[in-house]
């Protein structure tokens, strides 16, 4: 918790002012003189936005900083899952070291919070979660990490997984994950009933991966809606990817979005280039909470991605066909306030009393910053400078 005077910044690309920070919180926006001994930074008119939020990633998977991973396999979902589970140790993907690299990269590029799904399966038990927990402790002054207990290999098809999820939640995973109840588990009622039972028992929200497209994904969504109503979990469920909302049926998608808004379901998008994705502008119109994430980066799933939420904003913006400045400002919202709303982060923003978690962006306007993947001269977490010019104050392992 720190004091700092940040001079000559433009909150959300507006009028220039100074930001006074006391005890890690924003104490005032205006014009201030530095007090004796107070740290002072001059932002030279840079834009300031609250900390970027990676609300959907996989810290335990990346090969970032490792030798290049040659991928010569077909892109079938089940195949990607099984290959990773059976080979990650041999390849040397150490969950602690790799999550350090990924998380430090995100922080250096202006992120203040991460929601990471971490694999739980009968081969690894909770060991991957334990690796990411170590990272969370090591980086607690740099970035906040929330962990989703993620049964990537399936729940019903992998007996023993339910017990592991139960244990992970008992030990402190903040969110319960799930995956394609039809496509991966072939037992939607089985998986969803168990997920909702576990979530209610542990009092945690659910964030389920739904790659299922078109009618199949819509069917699963309807099963999720039924269980939200039955368990009183309005406002406590997120659907990640939600590719079914990218289907080419305007009316059907509209009906799904109406129900998503009514049940206050959050949507997480990564702007996946290889499939149809939900329209962030249509979800905005319906006032649905939408966050963004960089998903897996440079892992056994695929070679793309950076630990950088501004880079991801650009991917989401391009995938959504955005052009106007207002739309581009909205994509920045998705990777910041949108993600904070999904994760329900207290004290998020640039108002007096908010956490002093923010990043500077060099650019004229918010749209300009997105399109340029603007440089980030300074990143502040809890009122302390934790990165300069895209380089964190902590070393990469
Ligand atoms: N997009 C995804 C990345 C990793 N695991 C998944 O199930 N999905």
Written account of the structure:
With 397 residues, the chain is α/β, with parallel strands linked by helices. It has 2 domains: 4-50 and 349-389, Roll (Urease, subunit C, domain 1), CATH 2.30.40.10; 52-343, Metal-dependent hydrolases (TIM Barrel, Alpha-Beta Barrel). It is built from 11 helices and 16 strands. It has helices spanning 77-91, 95-108, 127-138, 161-171, 188-202, 214-231, 250-262, 280-285, 309-319, 325-343, 366-371, and strands at 4-11, 17-22, 25-30, 40-50, 52-57, 111-119, 144-150, 175-179, 206-209, 237-240, 266-269, 290-292, 358-361, 378-381, 384-388, 391-392. It has an 8-stranded mixed β-sheet with strand order 3-2-1-4-13-14-15-16, with helices on one face. An 8-stranded parallel β-sheet has the order 5-6-7-8-9-10-11-12. The longest helix has 19 residues, at 325-343. The radius of gyration is 21 Å and the shape is globular. The two termini are 25 Å apart. The model has no long low-confidence stretch (mean pLDDT 97). The site of 6-aminopyrimidin-2(1H)-one has 7 residues, from loops. 6-aminopyrimidin-2(1H)-one binds next to loops.
